[in-house]
Fold these 4 entries.
Entry 1:
Amino acid sequence: MTLTQPFFQHALLAGTAIAAAAGLIGYFLVLRAQVFTGDALSHVAFTGALAALAIGVDPRLGLFVATIGVALLLGVLGRRGRPDDVAIGNVFSWILGLGVFFLTVYTTSRSAVNGNAGVSVLFGSIFGLSTSQAVTAAVIAGLVCVAVVIVARPLLFASIDEAVAAARGVPVRLLGFAFLALVGACAAVATQAVGSLLILGLLAAPAGAAQRLTDRPYRALALSAGLAILEMWAGLALSSTVPKVPPSFGILAAATAVFATAVIVGPRRMPAGAAR
C-alpha cells in the first residue's frame, strides 16, 4: 500500500508543513499586493540552488541564503520594507541573468550523472526526500508557520492601513523586513515540493481562493492554509495513484481547480490591501 511506503510518508510529512507555510505566507502576499515578490523569489530559488550546485555544496544552502538574502535586499530597496514593482523587476532581471550563468557553469563543469539535480530544482522532488531531508523541511516550514502566527495581528494591521499602523507605533518597516525574510524561507523550502518554477502557484492559489470565500481576515488566513494542505494531499495522492503524473503537477492542478471553483461559486472580494 502506498501509504506505508517511506517515500510517501516523507512526502506527506514535508508536504503538509510546506503547504501550511505557503498558505499562511500566500495570504499576506495577496493581501499586501506583493504576489510579484513571491514570483521573483521563486526565480531566486532557482539561481541560488544552481549556484550551490555549481560550486559543489548542498543546494539547500544556496536556496536559503539566496532567497532570504534577496528578500531582505528587496526590503532595503522599498519603502518601509515594502518593495515596489520597479525594484522587484530590476532585481528579477539581474537574478535571471545570474541563473543563466550558474546553469552554464553547472552543466559544463559537472558530470552528466548529476544532470537530474537541475531538473529537481525546477520541478521539485518531494518523493525523493530522505528521512532527514523531510524532517528538516517540516521543521523549517513549521517554524515559518509559528513566526507568521506570532506576527499575524500587527502584520494584518500594517497591511490594511500602513499609515495608521505606523502612527499607532507598529514597527511597519521591521515587520516588512521580517515578512520578506519569511517569504524567502518559505520559497526555499517549497522548492523541494513543487520546484522553483511552480512555487507561485502554491503561494497564490490557496490564498486567492480563500479571499474569495470569506472577508474575515483570520478565517481567510486559516482557510488559505487549510486549502493548501488539502491540495498538497490531493496532488500527492494523484501522483502516487497515477505514477506518470508528477507530484508538482498534481499539487498545482488541485490548487488551480480549487481556485477556479472559488471564483465561480464565491463572491468577488477585494483584498483589503489591494486597493492602493
Entry 2:
Amino acid sequence: MEIIKLRDEYIKLGQALKAVGLVGSGVDAKYVIEEALVKVNGRTELQRGKKLRAGDIVEYDGKTIKIEE
C-alpha cells in the first residue's frame, strides 16, 4: 500500500495516481479514470479532478493508495 501525506486540504485523483507512479502523466491518468479502472473508497470513480481527503482509499491495477494528513 502506498501512502500519500497531504500538504493541503486535498489532492486530486489524477495527481495522486501520478504521485505514486501508477501512471506516467495526467493524460494517462485521464484515460484510466475514464475507462472506469479506478476506485475510490470501493466505488468506481470517473472524475479525474475528484478531491481526495484524509482517510480516502484509491485502488487501481491491483495497488492501493491511502490518503493521510
Entry 3:
Amino acid sequence: MADIRTYTLIYVALLALGTGKFVFFSFPEIFSYWMAFAGTIVLAIIKSLLIAAYFQHLIEEPRAITYMVSVAVFMVLLLTIAAGYSIQ
C-alpha cells in the first residue's frame, strides 16, 4: 500500500491536471477549440489512469487483473463508438 506522500503527490498531480483543463478553455487566443478539446481528453485519460492505479489500487494487483480491466475498458470504448455511430 502506498504511503501518505504518494497519495499527496497524486492529489497534487490531479489538481494540476484539472487546472490544465481550465487553462485550455480560458485562453482561446492560444488554444483553438479543437486543441482544447483534444488536450482535455488527454488530460482526462491521464487522470483516469492515475485514479485507477493508485486510489483503486490496481498498481498493486497482478498484471493479469490489470490487463483484464484494460480489455474491459477498451470494449466499453468500442461499444460507445458503435452506439455513437448508430445514432447518426
Entry 4:
Amino acid sequence: MRLEEITDDNREAVRALRVRRDQKRFVASVSRSLKDAAKTAEANPWYRAVYCGDEPAGFVMLSWKPPTGPFTGRYFLWRLLVDKRYQGRGIGRDALTQIADLVRADGGTELLTSYETGEGEPLPFYRKFGFEPTGEIYDGEIVLRLTLPQDAGDG
C-alpha cells in the first residue's frame, strides 16, 4: 500500500472509486472531495490516491496546517475513502498509519478528524486506531483526535 499523487494519468481511475451504498452518507466521493479542495484553497488541502499494487484502492485528503479557519495550524483528516472492492483488507488502517507518520515527521503532535453519527458510522474504525473524542463539534460532526507522540530518540 502506498500513497500516490493524483495526476492526469490516474485521475479518472481515482474518481471512479466508490464506497458501499450504506457508507455514502458518511464520506463524500472523490469527485466531490477534489471540488471541495479546489474551492477551499485556504484549507490547504493535501490529497493522495491510496494504491494497492498497481490499482488505486482509496483516497485520502487532509487540511494540512491551514493558515486560517477553525483548524489553524493543525492537521485535519478531511476525507478517507476505501473503495468497496478493497474494504476489509487493512488498507484504511495502513493509509492512516502512513498519514500519521507523515504528520509526525512534519512536527505534528496530533491528527484530527470528524464524523457524522448514525448507523454504520466510522467511529469504531477510528477508535480502534486510537482516536479519542475532543468534545468539539464542527459543522455538525464530532471531532476526534489522535495523539502522535514524538520519538524520544536515544536521549
